[in-house]
Design brief:
With 99 residues, this protein is mostly beta strands. It is built from no helices and seven strands. The strands form two sheets. A four-stranded antiparallel sheet has the order 4-7-6-5, with no helix packed on it.
Length: 99
């Protein structure tokens, strides 16, 4: 699924993060998820400019998304913020010209 499809109503609450692959050279991030009904879902993020991830687990270990937000930050970029049930956060800033 294209990441901008999130803006059209797909919610990530209770999706499990299975894997995150970063292709730094090509500016791509692939997030492998498992939906609440156990179906695999892949998010493709192209042309990322920032990627931040924590792995402190202040609330205990966990890999489920408890909160997500996708916002435009200027005319050309979006910011995706995720908070996991572990208390860790993930932030990705990427170009709005997704395929």
């Amino acid at each position: 699924m294209n990441i901008l499809d999130l803006a059209q109503g797909v919610k990530l609450h209770d999706h499990a993060i299975e894997d995150i692959a970063v292709d730094y050279k090509n500016g791509q991030i692939t997030v492998q998820l498992l939906t609440p009904d156990l179906k695999p879902l892949e998010l493709q993020i192209e042309d990322f400019s920032e990627f931040f991830i924590q792995n402190h687990a202040p609330w205990g270990r966990g890999h489920y998304i408890s909160w997500s937000d996708l916002q435009p930050i200027d005319g050309n970029h979006y910011q995706l913020d995720l908070e996991l049930n572990s208390g860790d956060r993930i932030r990705i800033v990427f170009s709005g010209s997704q395929q």
